[in-house]
Every structure is written in structure tokens, then in C-alpha cells.
Amino acid sequence: MGTVVGIVVISYMVYNAYKYRERDGHEEPMADPLQLGELPQGGGDGKKLAISLTISAIIVVALIGWAYVLLVDVEAGPSPSADPLEVEVEGIQFAWQYEYPNGHTTNTLRVPEDRAVTLTVTSGDVFHTFGIPAFDLKADAIPGQTTQRWFRPNETGTYQAQCFELCGSGHSVMESDVIVMEPTEFEQWYAETGSGTNTAATGNPSDAGSTPADRTANDSSAASIQRVVTTLQQ
Ligand SMILES: [Cu+2]
């Protein structure tokens, strides 16, 4: 969009610069300035001005309308009939922890495709900001407060969640995977997490996660945090 606008504006500018370039025998425009009370001659009755104002107004109003419609949808939240998946998100230096309605705690957010997900975001220590750029989602994570956000992933895959507020030495590694799964695959995974294998959630990210994949993710994020901390200490 920006590129198209840039090309149009710059082309028009270059065209006019060429069209009105200084040529031999040209007249100095201000050689005979208007006197007080004298009306300027010529021009197209302000036609160009009217056209450009109208086009600008249409573009601006269209953008406002578009943003408004999007915001109404976002603010309204998912309809209760959509049966949103509710996940609690807690930021701690320096990891994200997700808790599902069945009590399962993990450091990798797994969600089903094509179903609304409601996130209740908070922090266990300092200010953080939770965000998933792929879903245009960002929420303050503040100790003692909760922030609600929702999104509806429409394509399976692995995305990134990360912290968007400088929160300490491990801020840059405060990220986690967001895995959007096929609904049936998700249901299967979720049913397994409910079997009570993960009652040992302590709030320590390295203890959380009940599947081997989660543990691997935890190990790798814990290892990368350790690397950063070690680097900073040197
Ligand atoms: Cu942070």
C-alpha cells in the first residue's frame, strides 16, 4: 500500500517538475504581482483543488470507517456461542506460562484452528507486555491486574509470542511458541493433559509442561535464558 502511494506521488511530482521546467523565453511568474484588491485571472475555477480535496476526504473517511468496523468486531469479543478456549497467561522473568481450564500449565501455547481463544494476561513479577505479532495481538501483563484479549487463528502452524516491554536482562529471550493445531489434534492433546500428569506446576517454567515436546521447549528456553544471563554477567 505504502509502495503504491509512494510510486503515485513521486511519479506525479517528477511529471510536474518536467512539465513546468524552466525553458527559454519563459516569463517570471511574479514579474507583475497582483495589486491590493485585484483578483487573480485564469485557473479552472478551483476545479483541481475541489477534486483533490474530495479524493482526500473519501480516502480518509474510508480508512476511518474501515478501522471502526474492525474495532467494533475486536471490542465485541467472541460470541459466547463460539465457545472460546480460555487460557490464562502469566509473564515471569523471563518466560510465559499458560494455564488451561483443566489446570494444565505449559510454556508453549497450543490452540485449535478456527476457534476463538480468550487470553487473560497478568504478570507474576514486573511489567511485561504479551504479544503475538502474527495475530495482531498485544496485552499489558501487570502484576495484580488482568488484561483480556482474544484472537481466532485461521491457519495451522507455529508462531511466536514474545515480550514487548523491557523487563530485565532476559527480556530478549522472553518468547514462546504458539502452535495452532488441527481441531481434532488439539482435542486429543488437550484430553491427554487432563489425565493429571501435570499436577506439579509450580510456577517455575522449567517444571511446567507435561508432554515431551513441551519439556524440550522448556529446556531450550531455560538454556537460552541461562546463556544470556551468563553473557551479561561476564
Ligand atoms: Cu518481559
Automatic annotation (TrEMBL):
It is a multi-pass membrane protein. Keywords: Copper, Electron transport, Membrane, Metal-binding, Respiratory chain, Transmembrane, Transmembrane helix, Transport. It comes from the Archaea. Residues 195-204 have a biased composition (Low complexity). Residues 82-192 form the Cytochrome oxidase subunit II copper A binding domain. It is found in: Membrane. Belongs to the cytochrome c oxidase subunit 2 family. This is Cytochrome c oxidase subunit II. The lineage of its organism: Archaea, Methanobacteriati, Methanobacteriota, Stenosarchaea group, Halobacteria.
